Amino acid sequence: MAKHAKLVVLAWLAVGVLVNTAWPQLERVANEHSVSPLPTGEVSPALASMKEMGKAFGRPGIDNAVIIVMHGDKGFDADAQARYSALIERLRGNTEYVTFVQDQLGDPRMRNNPVARKQVLSEDGTTWYAMAGLAGDLGTPLAQRAFRSVDDLVKQTFAGSATTANITGAAGTVTDMGNAALGDLPKIGAVTVVVIGLILLLVFRSWFTAMLPLLVMGVSLLIARGVIAGLAERGLVPVSSVSAGLMMAVLMGASVNYTVFLVSRYHERIRAGEALPDALAHACGSMTRVILATAATVAIANIAQLTARLAFLAAAGPAVSMGVIVAFFVVTTMLPATLSLAAKRGLGLPGSDRVDVYWRRMGVNIVRHPWPFFGVATVILLAAASFVPFMRPSFDISKVLPESAQSNQGMRTLNAHFPANSIMPQYLLVQASSDLRNPRALADLDQMAERISQLKGVGKVVGITRPDGNKLTQATLAWQIGYMGTQIDKTSGQVNADLRPQLERMSKLADVMSAMTNELGDGDLARLQQMMPQTLAMAKELEGQLDRYQSLISQMGTVAGMVDQLAKMGPSVEATFTALDAGRRWPRRWPNPPSARYNPTA
User: Fold this and answer.
1) CB 157 within 8 A of CB 86
2) Which residue(s) pair with 69 in the sheet?
3) Whole-angstrom Cα distance, residue 388 to residue 372?
4) Which of 54, 179, 247, 317 suits a disulfide with 59, CB 3.0-4.6 Å?
C-alpha cells in the first residue's frame, strides 16, 4: 500500500470525478425514477377504495388530486371570472397530465344551486377553488411532472392579477415535502461537517488528523452518489426522493466511525514504539476485520428493507447499503495510503496522550464501585426517557413544512374561509350488489350517516341524503307528518265534495222506493218477484254469449260498454226487488216512512 499510495489516492479521486460526470446527479435521477411514497392498493385498502371511487364516479386520479385555491379582496369579479374560466379551459386541454377537472362554479347545473356554490365559494365571496386530478400515482415522477405542468398553468393564468392562486392538496403537500427535503440536504451536510470537525479536533488536537475523517467522508459520499445514480438510471436499483438524504446521513456516520477506528489503532501502535510502516500495517490488519464486520452488519440490515411491502421504504435500503460498502473500501484503501503519505511529512502522528491517565482512572473507579456509576447512569437515562409519555405523534405533514410552502399557504386560505376539513374530508365508500337509488337504501344510508355523525371527532357527514351535511327537511319525521296532515285535509274536502251529490241521489231514490211501495199492490209485487229469477238468468245467459263473441264486442266498444253495464245491474235489480218485497209486507200506512228516517244531511 505504501509503495503505491499516490496511485491509490489518485485512483479514488478519479473514480469520484468519473461517476459524477458520466451519470446524472442523484437528485435528478430520484425525481425521474422515484417510487411512490404511498403504499399500493394491495397493501392499503384505503388507497384501493379511493381508486375504486374515482373509477366509479368518473374521476380517475382522485387519489392524486390538487386543489387550486384562489383568493382576491375584490371577490369573484369579472376579471377573476375570466381568468378562472381560462384556467379551467387550459386544464381541460392538458390531457397529458390532467385526468379530470371539477368545475362547480362554471357548471350550468350548479349556478342556481346555492348549496353547491357554497361548497366552492366562500360566504364573503373572496375565496374560491377548483379541483383537478393528475396523472400517475402520488409522488411518482409522472405525478411530479404533472404537478409542475399544472403549477405553470396556474402561474401563467394569474400573472399580473389581483387574485392570488396557490396549489394545495395531497399532491401539493408531497411535492413541497420533497422540495423542502432536497433543499435542506446541503444545510444538513454543512452543519454535520462542522460539528464532526470540531469534535474530532477536540479529540485529536490536530488539524490534519481531524480532517482525515472528513476527507474520507467526502470521497465516499461523492463516489456513492454517483454509483447509486448510475444504477438507478438503468433501473438496476430502486430509488426514492429520500434515498439521498438517508444515504448521506448513514454514510457520514459510518465513514467517520471507521476512520476513527483505524486512526486510533494506528496511534496506539506508534505509542507502543513501533515504526510508522509497521504501526500502519498492524492497524490495517487488526481493524480491517472489525470494520468489515461493522459495515456488513449495516449493509445487510439495509438490504433487508427490500422485503418491505412499502416501496418507498424498500427503495431506501439499497442506497444506504451501497453507501456503507463504498465507505468500507475507501477507509481500508485510501485512508492507509493517505496516512502513509502524511507520515513522510510528519503529519497524522499522535500527540501527547494527556487524557490517558484520566480514562485509566475512570475505568479503575468503575470497576471498584460499579453500583454508584450504575445508579447515576440509570437516573440520567430515566430522566431522558421521562419525556416519552408526553410525546404526541402527528400525521399532519403540513406541520413539518415551512410556512412559505405553497401547499401550506393554500391550506391556510381554505381554513380561513371554509369550514375545517370540508375541502379535504375523509371518504366512506359504500358498495352494494343492487341499485341503491330506492327509498329503502336511501333510508339506510341516511341512518348510517346519522350514526357516524354521532361519533366523537366527526364534525359533519355529507352524502346523497345530506348534501350540505344536514338532514333534509323533507326527510324529517315532523315534516312528513305535517305533509300527510295537509294531504288528508285536502282529500277530506274533496271526498265530501264528491260524495254529497251521491248521497242526495240516494235520498231521492229512497223516496221513490217508498212511493212505489205505497202504490204497488200485493199482486204486482208477487209478479215482479216471480219474474226476477228469469230476468237474472237471461242476463247471465247474455253475458256468456257476450264472452263468446268477445272479438266482435271489442270492435263495438260503445255497445259493449252498455251491455256490460246492463249485465252488471243484475245484482242491483235483485236487491231492489228484495227491498220491494220486504216493503210489501209492511202495513199500508207507515207511521214513519223510510224517507223520513233516512236523512243524509242529518
Assistant:
1) yes
2) 129, 166
3) 25
4) 54
Bridge partners (DSSP) of residue 166 are: 69
Q: Are 280 and 266 in contact (CB under 8 A)?
A: yes
Q: How far apart are CA 140 and CA 342, in angstroms?
A: 48
Integer Cα distance of 8 and 331 in angstroms: 12
Which DSSP state fits 423? S
Long-range contacts at 590-599 (CB < 8 A, ≥ 24 apart): 590/514, 593/514, 594/510, 594/513, 594/514, 595/507, 595/510, 595/511, 595/514, 598/507, 598/510, 599/507
* Alpha carbons 242 and 312: distance in angstroms, whole number: 9
| Region of residue 239 (left: phi > 0; alpha: psi -120 to 50; beta: else) | beta
**Chain centre distance of CA 443:** 27
CB 296 within 8 A of CB 375: no
Q: What are phi and psi of 345, to 5 degrees?
A: -110, 10
Please give the angle made by the CA atoms of 227, 246 and 225, to the nearest 5 degrees: 15
Helix (H, G, I), strand (E, B) or coil at 165: strand
As a whole number of angstroms, the distance between CA 544 and CA 499 comes to 34
Report pTM.
Answer: 0.68
Q: H or E segment at 130? A: strand 127-134
> In this structure, what DSSP letter does residue 588 have?
S
DSSP label of 119: H
What DSSP character marks residue 316? H
203 in Cβ contact with 329 (< 8 Å): no
65-71 and 127-134 as β-strands: parallel, antiparallel, unpaired? antiparallel
Q: Which of 215, 63, 224, 221 is nearest to 138 (CA)?
A: 63
The span from the first CA to the last CA of the chain, in angstroms, equals 130
Name the residue among 428, 412, 431 with its Cα closest to residue 420: 412
Domains of the chain: 5-24+200-387 (1.20.1640.10), 504-597 (no CATH)
Instruction: Scan for cell 463504498, then name that residue.
Output: 326
What stretch of H or E contains 101? strand 98-102
Instruction: State yes or no: pLDDT of 341 exceeds 70.
Output: yes
Q: Measure Cα distances from 204 to 198, 267, 327 in Å.
A: 10, 10, 21
Does the pLDDT at position 51 exceed 70? yes
- pLDDT beyond 80 at 506: no
Give 3-state DSSP helix, strand, coil % of the chain, rounded to 5. Answer: 70, 5, 25
529 vs 526: CA distance, rounded Å:
5
The C-alpha atoms of residue 496 and residue 59 are separated, in whole angstroms, by 56
The confidence score (pLDDT) of residue 560 equals 45
List, for residues 385-436, the tens digit of each pLDDT value.
Answer: 999 888 888 777 777 788 888 888 998 898 888 876 677 778 888 888 888 8
Asked whether 69 and 410 are in contact (CB, 8 A), the reply is yes
DSSP string covering 466-500, please?
A: BTTSS--GGGSHHHHHHHHHHHHHHHHHHHHHHHH
Residue 566 is given by DSSP the state H
Distance of alpha carbon 81 from alpha carbon 413, whole angstroms? 19
Lowest mean pLDDT, pick from 91-100, 166-175, 202-211, 521-530: 521-530
Please tell me the distance from the alpha carbon of residue 220 to that of residue 545, in angstroms, as a whole number: 111
Measured distance CA(256)–CA(196) in Å, rounded: 8
What are the grid coordinates assigned to 573, written together? 235489480
Q: For all residues of the chain together, what is the average pLDDT?
A: 80
